[in-house]
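cron nightly-structures :: item 1 of 1
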Amino acid sequence: MREIVHVSIGGSRVRVRFTNAHGQAPLQIGAAHVALRSSGAATMPGSDRALAFGGKSSVTIAPGAAVLSDPVNLDVPPRSDLAVSIYLPVATGLPTLHFRSRQTNYVSPKGNFTSAASMPVASTTVCADQFANRVCTSPWYFLAGVDVRAPAGVGAVVALGDSITAGAGTNTDTNRRWPDVLARRLLNQGPVTGVLNQGIGGNAIWSSELGPSALARFDRDVLATSGSRFVIVLLGINDLIDGTSAARVISGLQQLATRTQAAGLKVYGGTLTPFQRGSDTLEAQRQAVNRWIRTSGAFDAVIDFDAVLRDPALPRRMRPLYDSGDTLHPNAAGYEAMAGAIDLSLFRP
């Protein structure tokens, strides 16, 4: 498999994190490589690096576990694409995956093609339908993250969220999620800071219906990520849609804020964005949560995504200019507006 990852900042060394978090049997990776992607499934000549694990070219990952590769020297430009190739010599069983990457990934015929600059492609995992509430798959398999060695003093912003953070409503391969836009702004205008997108479609603060809840995955996806210094939390709308009360959503957000600050990180609360199709009760609950986010002082700062996206004539509705068409998820212009509303001075050391 050749899986494509768009990085935020660059660096001179790179390592890759693989996971068998939801596997029910050991996962055998027979070989793994990383390279700069040129186009499609092809990599740039001279950029291919074989990955090792404790000096060995293969690794077996126990169920529920993850591994980091040894670092390799590779000059990674900011906002470039990396191709992470893995050879799976035996059947994996239940795969661990990020089920809507909004990125075309590639599967070869049988055989080990991890080092091939022009990998033969038997199929692609491309998503034809961008809306998160429909059947659609464009997964990253067994790939949990990529670290680059950045200059001293450079940290990362973790975007902890649901499908709105994961980029639902944008086109595949465009990298126009709001964390992508924030990464671009930071490179162009602000302090050099990595941006780590930890958005999962359907994710909720309390429910684990689609992957572990935010409270359950917090240590893994925030505290264990390399270089974390700042966290933006944009969560709660799925809880409200599922019938969770505003009071319980608020208690979960308070926990996320407290746990982040206890780890010595700055945490910024994002207000919940408009959802026109919701009931009057849901809208009242959303407004209650947003009042708490704005006024409680639980967060180190507030990012008012609701104020950016809502229609002044009908505050429960997203501005039509920003609506992807399902009244919940913004389009690319909406994500540009969200990222554009973030004060970059929040990320100064």
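cron nightly-structures :: done
The longest strand covers residues 11-19.
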